[in-house]
Predict the structure.
Amino acid sequence: MESKSAAGTTEGNIEKDSLTAGESRVKFSAVWRGTIEDFLLDRPTAKTTFEATAQKLSEALSIIEQTGAAPVMPDGKVGGNGAALLQVDSQSYFIVSKSGKQAGHCMKAYTDMCIVHNFSKKDWSVDYWSCDATVLPTSDTTLHYAALTAGEANGWSELPRAALHGHALATEAMALEAGLPCSNEETLFSTPPDMAALLGLLAVFPYPKNKSFIRRGHGFFILGSDVAETVQTFESKIKPYM
């Protein structure tokens, strides 16, 4: 019998069709700037925070995968990812999971996480650090970057520092049952229209009054003050309705 979470991913087929066709997950230009070790060598004060935050992201992604909220997609990789702010002096970077998590794999800080910076909406590009140039940041880097930097423009009373995304509750009906705001249109992931749809949702349903959002045909998107809070929100606002 098909589970509710599985059913929640079938309202739209744009994402699945793209992956089934063998199209790349990452649809933005990713410019490799070096390894994580290179990044931390130039910013030694960030090492402890990076390692601790990467560990928490890894644990969060394992939780949503184990509950079925981050299923294996048509390309054989898991559909779920996360991000967290890494503040280094006056510069804001983001730790994000890599694109294409293997099912059941516990992600490691230096081999499975990326650090991103300087996202350009105009050029649709981002600079990143990872273990090597073939390890790309999650295809939803653009969504994470947009959501985690949207606060000032929208006048939010608090700014989120972490985000968690999975593929459960991807239909309007399931969003309604859970009492969560849902976008009106389905868009292809990792594209400008996808970012615009999320930003439109965030403009109408501001954080922190709202922390969970449903992207039609794509799944849930959670914002929080840290990774731990995104997991708590997942447990209380998403999991009971799967």
In short: The longest strand covers residues 80-88. The beta strands are 29-34, 80-88, 91-97, 113-120, 125-129, 162-166, 212-215, 219-224.
